[in-house]
Amino acid sequence: MGPCLRTGATVARALASYLDVPLVGANHLVAHIEIGKLTTGAKDPVTLFVSGGSTVVSAFEARRYRIFGETLDIAVGNCIDVFAREVGLLHPGGPHVERLAREGKNYIRLP
Predict the structure, then answer these.
(1) What are the residue boundaries of the structural domains of the chain, listed by start?
(2) Residue range 85-92: average pLDDT?
(3) Reported CATH class of domain 27-103
(4) pTM assigned to the model
(5) What gap in Å lies between CA 65 and CA 5, rounded to an integer?
(6) 3-state DSSP assignment of residue 67
């Protein structure tokens, strides 16, 4: 993934220079959280961010995002993608697993 990110950063810097516009950095995780807040209307949520190689529990505190926990081995998103691939679902697996879970009728409701 490193070479792809470096190439993207190089292209972004070149375009910003060519167009004479500022290049503004953005945190990928924070961008996802902010989009979620905008679409749901949530105020200061504690979030579980699960995406590919990242699994992070975070919240907004003292004017910045704080990370309360994150995985150090396989991220939940990768785990779901591996599971989905093993059972023959398309990539990315998360939306397919979620849809099947919503449609499922054979489950046990825990207290």
Answers:
(1) 27-103
(2) 90
(3) alpha beta
(4) 0.53
(5) 23
(6) strand
